Amino acid sequence: MSGKISERDKMATSKAKPVKKKAVKKPTAAALKKQKYDRDFESICKEIENGIAVRKVCPAYMSLEKFYQLIAESPEKTKRYACACEARAETIFEDIIEIADTSNADVFIINGKMVVDGEAIQRSKLKIDARKWMLARLAPKKYGDKIEVDANLTGQVTNIISLGSGINPDDTTT
């Protein structure tokens, strides 16, 4: 061993300078409330994406009035809500396909004979029709009925003025 002190030993024996801790600011009550509203808003949007109606979801988190107020105050929240509504429409569309493809309750066996359950079939049809109606209102451009309007009018337009005296409007001899 030599009498020299290595750099490692110098560092080990020297006193380390105390590190100043930065003061951590506690969030204000308003900031905490905003964070809670933001978390709740996101939770509501996720429920909407799953096909749950806003009126059913909101009471667990906040009032409907507050929910719509948050949307009105923030363009980002407006976009997020619009995306959630688009996703909800897709979820409802997928539900329609699932209902149509599910046939386990349509037929049952009584005394070895297959019997069609008309009530189950009608209920499925009603579920599908209700969802189709809802989709047509939620996303009319994508799921609404396509109506073509033919704007070409042909024929003669006749103006008829009733004077009550039996005068023929085509009669120009007066």
Number of DSSP strand runs: 2
Helix and strand pattern: HHHHHEEHH
* Sheet of most strands: 2 strands, antiparallel
State the CATH topology of the domain at 29-143.
Answer: Arc Repressor Mutant, subunit A
Q: What is the residue-mean pLDDT, rounded to a whole number?
A: 82
Region (Disordered): 1-27
Pfam families: Sf6_terminase
Biased composition (Basic and acidic residues): 1-12
Protein name: Terminase small subunit
Give a structural overview.
By secondary structure, this protein is mainly alpha-helical. The chain has a domain at 29-143: Orthogonal Bundle (Arc Repressor Mutant, subunit A). The protein has helices spanning 7-13, 29-49, 54-57, 64-73, 75-101, 118-138, 140-143, and strands at residues 107-110, 113-116. The chain has a two-stranded antiparallel ribbon. A hairpin with a 2-residue loop joins strand 1 and strand 2 (113-116). The N and C termini lie far apart (139 Å). The mean pLDDT is 82.
Give the SSE map.
Layout: H1 7-13, H2 29-49, H3 54-57, H4 64-73, H5 75-101, E1 107-110, E2 113-116, H6 118-138, H7 140-143
Antiparallel strand pairs: 1-2
Region (Disordered): 1-27
Biased composition (Basic and acidic residues): 1-12
Protein name: Terminase small subunit
Question: Short description, anyone?
Answer:
Residues 1-12 have a biased composition (Basic and acidic residues). With 174 residues, the chain is mainly α.
